[in-house]
Amino acid sequence: MEHSVDTTIQFSGLKPGNYKYQYTLDDSFFSDYKNEKILGGEVVFDVEFEKNERMMMLYFDYSGKVLTTCDRCLGEMEWPINGKQVLCVKISDNETSDNEDVVILPESAYKIDLAQWMYEYIVISLPIQCIHPDDKNGNSTCDPEMTKYLSDADERTETSDETASDPRWDALKKLKGND
Fold first, then answer.
1. pLDDT of 160 higher than 60
2. Which secondary structure element, helix H or strand E, spans residue 30, and what is its range?
C-alpha cells in the first residue's frame, strides 16, 4: 500500500550503527486505513534505528492525538496517544517467528516500511472504550442532546423490568428470599 507519508527505511548500504528518524502521521495517513475508530489526528514518531549485520532493532517513541468517536454520545473527540514500542527485525531466508515483536525479512530485502507497525501501535494505545471526560465538577461533557436519549432509554428499560415479570425467574426469586 502506498502511503501519504513516506515511512520506509532503506537499510541496504547503511553501515552498522544507530540512526534517528522522525515521522509525523496526519489525517492523510489515517485516511489510508479507513478505520471507523480513528477519524484522523496527528501523531509524531521518533524512531531510533539500530543496524547490525543480520539484525535491526527499532525503538519507537510516539505521542500526539487522534480524532475518534465517543462511545457514549457518538460525538467526535480528540484522544491523547503516547507510548514506546520495540521491534526486532532479522534478515534470514531460513528462520520463521511466532513472536509479533520479531519480523523476519528475506535476504533480498533492502528496505522496510514502518507504516503498518506505527498504525498498530496507535490502535493498541486507544482504550477499549473512549468516552468524553467529565468536567472539573464531575459532570459529563458528552453531547447533552444524545445523553438525553440514553437516559430516556434507561428509564424505559427500568419501567419495563418492573412491570414485566417472567414466571421462570419468579420461583428463583422466592428461593432467594428464603435465605
1. no
2. helix 27-31
